[in-house]
Amino acid sequence: MKNAKVIELEEVAIRFSGDSGDGMQLTGTLFSDTSALLGNDISTFPDYPSEIRAPQGTVGGVSGFQVQFGKKKITTPGDLAHVLVAMNPAALKANAVFMNPGGTIIFDVDSFSGKNLEKAQFKTDDPFTELKLNDYSLIPVPITSMTKESLKELELDNKSILRCKNMFALGLICWMFDRPLDYIEKFIQSKFGKKSPLIAEANLIVLHTGYNYGMNLQHMTPQYIVHPAPIEKGTYRNINGNNATAWGFIAAAEKAGLELFIGSYPITPATDILQALAERKDLGVKSFQAEDEIAGICTTIGAAFAGDLAVTSTSGPGFALKSEALGLSVMAELPIVVVNVQRGGPSTGLPTKTEQSDLLQTLYGRNGESPVVVLAASTPSDCFYYAFLSAKITLERMVPVVLLTDGFLGNGSEPWRVPSMDELPSITPRKAKNPETFLPYNRDPETLAREWAIPGMEGFEHRIGGLEKNNAGGVNQDPDNHQRNSEMRAVKVEKVVDMIPEMEVDGNQEGDLLVVGWGGTYGHMISSVRAMQEAGKNVSLAHFNYIKPLPKNTAEVFGKFKKIVVCELNMGQFASYLRDKLPQFTYHQVNKMKGLPFSVHELVENFDKLLEA
Amino acid sequence: MTKFNYTAKDFKSAAEVRWCPGCGDYAIMNAVQKTMADMDIAHKDFAVISGIGCSSRFPYYMSTYGFHTIHGRAAAIASGVKSANPDLTVWVMTGDGDSLAIGGNHFIHLVRRNINLNLVLFNNKIYGLTKGQYSPTSDRGKITKTSPFGTIEDSFVPGQLVLGSRGTFFARALDNNMKHTQEVLADAALHQGTSIVEVLQNCVIFNDGIHDYISDPKFRSERQIFLRKGQPMIFGELEDKGLILEKGKLKVAKIGENGITREDILVHEPSEDNLGLQVALINMTLPEFPVAMGVIRSVEAPVYDQEMKKQIETVQQKRKISCMDELLQSGNTWTVEGENCSEPVKFFDNKCFG
Lengths: 613, 354
Fold this sequence. Notes:
The structure holds 2 protein chains of 2 kinds. By secondary structure, chain A is an alpha/beta fold.
């Protein structure tokens, strides 16, 4: 039956785009989940405005969701989309630059009217020529009118009818990519089925109308086949970085035999962590939505003092507000984890866009000599493991840990082979044992970690605080004591190097160019480095998850390459940190400050230039 | 029968107390230690949390668990302590600068949530630790180092702030009346919810005598009215004066004059939710009125830390997921197997973690 144009692809990127009220995030998510269930590897990138509902039909109000899926390992959501679904002219305008040359554009022809063209600030009535998209496959589909037509039998108001439009687009795309509809049908039933059966029925009708439209008009719409990816055995689920982070902490608390406490304040794009944990009362999670960012970390510090695994989540502006209290946990040596889901800055900046520009704030943004351990996750799913590790380090070393993720990781999702708890290492909190010899700042001679005695433990009563102290926790402003303690706090952080693995490079151990990245850029970094390697270039990748301390063998790794280039979504913060820590090397830089991830294309271009120079 | 037979001494630490000689803080500390001893709760279960300021050195002088934190944040940190472990008996020691200026937000939200802890607000109407600047409770016109020509702002009345934040317990005491302070602290300790005790405290160095007009023991019964549950609001050397309501307003009436008898005098009911009258009592100032001392409001309301515990227990009774492995396997998952597939590589393999 489906014999028209069938195109077989290794990987394909689709971008769903419409008004922020058009349901594009849901459409994209449902399509991604369906693809993941079919066995494709996927990577997603939600790109939405910070306004909940910007004026309808304007470019500023466009919300997009890009997903790449394929038959091999997918590490990025794709630089450019092969297929764009544009629900209105503004969506076309906002996304034209993200299109693969010659790609397919499916658009709701009903919405390409004079008024909407005007709202999107087109100068002519031919937006495609204006955007130079004429040699693309343009597929006009009367989405609005077909949606209305298919629902005319139902007693629904116009607004509710129009809200089903996204299901038409989803059905059509499912036909094009040969996806079954059962997962989506189940989702619609469980979301609307009980509360409003009529809405559920309408969505299902429109979904099928879209699917059938594709089938009936196959002379127009190409069909694609993307085979499942050969991947590791196991049970998989789709997970985004914020959920993975939240779950990593729950896993750590269970491993450590502690209760989990999160004190936090809602902030984009970190709020999902607090939400995901608030949902887990079944697992005993205590979630405290504080009155502000400062109270978020302060309740966390209080909970750590009281003996919980205590964490707080935030983004850049909130992290700034938490800095004094983070210093308190450095001084008091209480175990807490702060997650900073970075976004564009400074100030309120670009709340919904990704960036890596809080690195120096994290390393240095506190009064006094105030070292903390800094980790950075690199994919949506490994946020789970780095959250787990952050908890392990803080509990075993009694030192605060900051985990850096970013908006791209936090909101992006990928299929994840879920581990079982026995795959994860043990966590042994340093609970105090002997009240006879206990002093709050007696230390393990190896790790310099102090012991943790919590209120309720008999015989361990003691006082701690933010003032410089002696071993008993009492105030001590003696010059030599402060010198000693300052050095000790720094060394204690450095000693964590024993807990972390050595840096492993991807590619040859020596060569012409070492590409250095950290945190959430991993997918784009590895894709670009692999592309270079496939082209026969001697390029390797060193991607950092351990920022402070750096892996033991960092200098050794760096020393084996002719050139080093540090790539990051800021103006060169990791590069300047490396210049400080390992000044013997020359660091080239690739930096981007657009609120967007790197594209593989631009990275490759930059690396080529460096190799030629 | 008491379980522990503690005395105040059991709550004193070995640390040398470094408040200025004559500081009102000494008396307050003695009262707190006596109250704790009388509470008959295990010593190990006390946690004393403070912010920054003279009064906030308090935890160091206690032999209990203690945490001297950062400026303004004691209320937030104590909220975390109590929410994490509701079995602890948590006391917050704080001042007018700490809780009403830099920590104002945490203070009102602590009160609003009604977390079961006791907060002693040392109100000396000045910044002492920084050596004499005006505070949010300094009276308009107060001349200090940062207001050499007098302040041009009105002060907070702590009780108003507490009741405006839906406070369930507010009491007032004076540092030079230890017996009464203890009485009030004991009531605060028994109250379920956030108990705020404002102690008018004298700073001998930077604001000496600020409460003298009220506190002068010679005129105590004329200038202060000691409110007690179920008792008529009577004061005066001869117990001949009392408070009545006239046209909706509080008024001092003389018993025996104008036909006023003891029966006409208002009876103090702190456990009634009578915000208007309670605020009016808080607002009474000399010379028109005596200053209200004692527990002014003590009403029942849901307690945050208990509610948090209860909610978890309720959810857990009906839970479908009872451990992390179950959570990981829940919801939309799918299984990958077959010839094409490789064995899974565990994240922590070949890494340092033991």
